[in-house]
C-alpha cells in the first residue's frame, strides 16, 4: 500500500514561496498595527472612572469607559425601577442558571427538562412581575435590559422547538393535503421578515382579536418570535429526518412499533443528532435577533445602550457602549457555540 505524502506544515504554507512570505508578513504587520492601536485606544489611554465626568474623556485620546461606569445600570436593567434592580439581575441569573442546568445530561429527559424550565420561568416571572411575596408590582412595559433579552430568547426557543417538531412531522405526512398545507404555511412565514411578524403581533393583533384574547404585548411578541424560529427549525429537523436511512424506519415497522414509538425512539433522536450543527447556528442567530424587539417598543439591552449615550453629555461615547454590548453578546454566543461544538464531539456528528 502506497504511503501517503506528509501534509505540509503551517510554515511551508505561509512561507513556502516569496509571494506567500510577502503576503504573510504584510498580514502580520497589519494585524500588529491594528492590535497596537486598539490596545492604545482601549486600555493604555482609556478613561476608566467617571470621577472627572465627560470632560475627562474629552481630554483623553483613548476610550471613554467612564460611560459604562456611570450608566451600567441603565444598560443592564433598562426602564426597570432603580430600587428593584436586584430583582431583574436575580431573574436573569435564574434563567441563565436554568439554561446551564438543562445542558447537563442528568436533565436530558422530557419530564425533568419540563419541570426545570417551568420552575425557572415561574421564579423569573415572580421576580420580574412582583405583586406577590411582598414584591412591588412591575408591569411588563417596564421590563428591560439584559433580563428581557434573555427571557425573550429562552421563551422563543422553548416555545418554538416543539412547534418546529410538529411542523417537521406534519410536512413529512403521507397525506398530501397535510404535507402540502404545512409546507405552504412554512414557506409563507419564512418569506416574511421578522420585523413584520413582530409588528403584526404587537400592533395589528389587538385590532383583530377579541378584548379577552389580546393578552400582554410582550407575550404576543414572544409568540411571533417563537413562530419565526419554529418554521426555520422545522426545516432543519426535516433535513435531519431525511438523513436517516429508510431501512431503520422499515425495520421498526417490522418489529411492530407504532408511529409515535418510532418517532420518539428512532426518528427524532437521530434527526437531532444529524441536525445539531445547523440547530446550534439557528439558536445563536435567534439570540442576536432579539435586538429587533426594540422596533415594537421594548427596552432590551440594545435599546438600553442607545439610551445610555443618548443624553447630551455622553453622545460622543457611543462606540464604547456598543463595544460593551458586543462583549455581552459575544459571551452568550461564544458559550452557545462552544457547547454546540462539545455536543458534536460527544455525539461524533459527521464522523463515520
UniProtKB/TrEMBL annotation:
Name this protein carries in UniProt: Amino acid ABC transporter permease
Source organism of this protein record: Aquamicrobium soli
Domain of life, source organism: Bacteria
PROSITE patterns for this protein: ABC_TM1 (PS50928)
Residues annotated as domain ABC transmembrane type-1: 146-337
Matches recorded under SUPFAM superfamilies: MetI-like (SSF161098)
Pfam families, per database record: BPD_transp_1
Keywords: Membrane, Transmembrane, Transmembrane helix, Transport
Localisation per UniProt entry: Cell membrane
Amino acid at each position: 500500500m502506497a504511503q501517503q505524502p506528509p501534509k505540509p506544515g503551517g510554515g511551508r504554507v505561509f512561507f513556502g514561496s516569496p509571494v506567500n512570505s510577502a503576503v504573510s508578513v504584510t498580514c502580520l504587520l497589519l494585524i500588529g498595527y491594528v492590535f497596537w492601536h486598539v490596545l492604545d485606544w482601549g486600555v493604555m489611554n482609556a478613561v476608566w472612572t467617571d470621577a472627572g465626568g465627560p470632560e475627562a474623556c474629552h481630554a483623553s485620546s483613548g476610550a471613554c469607559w467612564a460611560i459604562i461606569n456611570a450608566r451600567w445600570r441603565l444598560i443592564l436593567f433598562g426602564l426597570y425601577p432603580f430600587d428593584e434592580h436586584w430583582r431583574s439581575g436575580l431573574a436573569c441569573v435564574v434563567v441563565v442558571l436554568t439554561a446551564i442546568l438543562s445542558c447537563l445530561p442528568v436533565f436530558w429527559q422530557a419530564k425533568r427538562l419540563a419541570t426545570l424550565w417551568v420552575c425557572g420561568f415561574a421564579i423569573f416571572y415572580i421576580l420580574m412581575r412582583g405583586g406577590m411575596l411582598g414584591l412591588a408590582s412591575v408591569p411588563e412595559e417596564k421590563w428591560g435590559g439584559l433580563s428581557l433579552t434573555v427571557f425573550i430568547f429562552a421563551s422563543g426557543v422553548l416555545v418554538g422547538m416543539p412547534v418546529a417538531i410538529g411542523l417537521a412531522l406534519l410536512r413529512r405526512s403521507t397525506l398530501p393535503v397535510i404535507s402540502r398545507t404545512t409546507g405552504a404555511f412554512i414557506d409563507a412565514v419564512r418569506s416574511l421578515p421578522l420585523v413584520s411578524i413582530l409588528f403584526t403581533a404587537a400592533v395589528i393583533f389587538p385590532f383583530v382579536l377579541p378584548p379577552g384574547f389580546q393578552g400582554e404585548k410582550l407575550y404576543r411578541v414572544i409568540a411571533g418570535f417563537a413562530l419565526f424560529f419554529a418554521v426555520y427549525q422545522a426545516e432543519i429537523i426535516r433535513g435531519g429526518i431525511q438523513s436517516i436511512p429508510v431501512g431503520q424506519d422499515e425495520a421498526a415497522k417490522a418489529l411492530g412499533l407504532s408511529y409515535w414509538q418510532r418517532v420518539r425512539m428512532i426518528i427524532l433522536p437521530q434527526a437531532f443528532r444529524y441536525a445539531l450543527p445547523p440547530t446550534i447556528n439557528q439558536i445563536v442567530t435567534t439570540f442576536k435577533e432579539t435586538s429587533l424587539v426594540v422596533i415594537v417598543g421594548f427596552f432590551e439591552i440594545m435599546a438600553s445602550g442607545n439610551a445610555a449615550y443618548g443624553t447630551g453629555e455622553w453622545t460622543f461615547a457611543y462606540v464604547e457602549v456598543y463595544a460593551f454590548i458586543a462583549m455581552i453578546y459575544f459571551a452568550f454566543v461564544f458559550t452557545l457555540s462552544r457547547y454546540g461544538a462539545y455536543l458534536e464531539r460527544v455525539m461524533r456528528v459527521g464522523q463515520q
